[in-house]
Fold this sequence. Notes:
Blueprint: E1 10-17, E2 22-27, E3 31-34, H1 42-45, H2 53-70
Parallel strand pairs: 1-3
Antiparallel strand pairs: 1-2
Cofactor: Zn(2+)
Keywords: Metal-binding, Ribonucleoprotein, Ribosomal protein, RNA-binding, rRNA-binding, Zinc
Function: Binds the 23S rRNA.
Amino acid sequence: MKKDIHPKYDTNVKATCACGAVFMIGSTMPSITMEICSQCHPFFTGNEKIMDTAGRVERFNKRRAATASKK
């Protein structure tokens, strides 16, 4: 590797989430702010919201049938 072309890697960088969680990680950036982390993401917290796609499709087909009957 060539000398003096790579960024400095620091092993104690503070990564702060919008929920307030703080992690110490390694990075080339001096500090990191993020919007979502493993402590507030719905997949990891168990508060996952399941979308009812079948209901949406049925509503769309009903509206499409209603506009077709008007024509």
